[in-house]
Amino acid sequence: MYRKSHFKVLSANRMFRTAMMILFAFISAIANGQAVTEIVTNYNGYWRTGHGNISPVKPDNHHELISFSYNGTRYSTGVNDALLSSNGLAFTPGLYNALPMTTIGGAANGNTKIGLGALVDGVANGAGPAPARTLGPYLNDGINGLDMGTCVANLPAGTMFLSVSNIQAAKIGDGIPDILVTQIADPSTSYDSYEFTDINGTRVGSPLNVVLNTISPVGQWMADFYEATGATILSSGYTQTQRDIRLWAADFTTFGINASNISNVAYFKITLSGTSDIAFVAYNSATITVQAVLSMRARQRLSRTLPAPVVTDLSVFPNPATDVVNLTHPTANAADAIFIFSVNGSQVSKYVPEVGATQTKIPVKGLPPGVYQVLYTCNQRRLMQKLVIK
Ligand SMILES: [Ca+2]
Ligand SMILES: [Ca+2]
Ligand SMILES: [Ca+2]
Is-above-0.90 flag for pTM? Predict the structure, then answer.
């Protein structure tokens, strides 16, 4: 009796273990299938590192991604193709830009850190002046937004919607990556989920869950991890520390996007676990157009001498709407205002955003179905988006 029940427990354990191994192997297979195997950046002019050939040099300052190798092909990012040629590297020319993550869904917390190359603050092993705590810009700074020497670590758990449009059907399934994601600190076993949605936020195609600790690193860097909240600027133990660099890429077919559902795609949605350490998420400019293309401000490298960058775009969600719309807008000042205009140009309503807010809910119930314009005015600038009421 004892033996029998003992055997049962063993058997159940074994079944569980086997199931977990199959699951893990499955997730690993997905992740490894997407792994980037080599990168070239402009650190100290030229830096090349990859699987099986990890560079002994560990970047500690700003540097931009020049190329990445995926599935046996080296793709340039368009930042400096000549650098690849002059070093005798064959490549397929590409053009990649960081997604403009100017707003981040979740609120920064005690885990959230701003990762900067150890020398970005001018002090090799120690703290310089406190960096700006607005997180979004660290995810799209540098040329094409591809600075790998800045990141947000433990990006707050939450959901981000990136507005995308004009997806080129011919670029789907061509094997050329359409999305490129970085992970440049300690990866965890939790996963981030990536998917496309329609204009109402409903999934189109299938989600891709990526567990980053199953991807092999391509290199290492030396970083400071500044606090994103609280009174402490830089905790001891977070100065000049070595971290791994990982990247993964995917073609849109991986997200179940095809000729029949492509026209429904309105947003790229990222569900963050709260443990991701992202330098940027880039997209293939030949494949999609991203609304709110980076301003000149975002293309400049961040440094402590620049003022805190500002959100420069206006987004409306959901769209079409029925009851309420959520506007994401630049941090509101006292004189800012939100207007809704009908298609013939007459003002339908006006709202005053709360000072300091970057999001405002607007009730639209009762508006006749049709096309409207939402206008956000601030600092003599006018930001417009089309709004459809159904
Ligand atoms: Ca430092
Ligand atoms: Ca593609
Ligand atoms: Ca960055």
Answer: no
